[in-house]
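Title: Prediction job returns without error message
Component: structure pipeline
Severity: low
Priority: P3
Assignee: unassigned

Description:
Job completed but the reporter wants confirmation the result is attached to the right record. Sequence as submitted:
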Amino acid sequence: MPLLCDGDIVVVAIRSASGKPRHTSRVDSQAFALEQSGDLAGAEAAGRTAVRVHRGDVWAHHAVAHAMYPPGRLAEGVQWMLSLAPMWTRLCSFMLTHNWWHVALFLVDMGTRRTVCSDDVVFGMRRLTFGDFWP
């Protein structure tokens, strides 16, 4: 599939999966591909479009974080990811920890290592211990 021009991003998001606007996987995949090919502005636009169509599109959250990191938009990246973090509670362990890893990466580069080491930032939740499973 060739890359889409900016005007086509919304059309794909709306027409994906038989016209159901909640399915944005083609747009979030495009966002990540654009980021990987160096088009950070295009990646961010596609990712934000996917999130506007379906706020819970965690791959779009991820793609926008990738687009914000190289130019050093660290505080904005933290704000973006934390604003969407409530959507991550039911994710598979990979995406849950990976999106929180992006938050931690932004914070480390901002010089806030102490904050990064707290369980709430690294895992997005209280860390489970052996005692949580065995009395």
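Comment from assignee: result matches the submitted record. DSSP finds eight helices and no strands in the chain.
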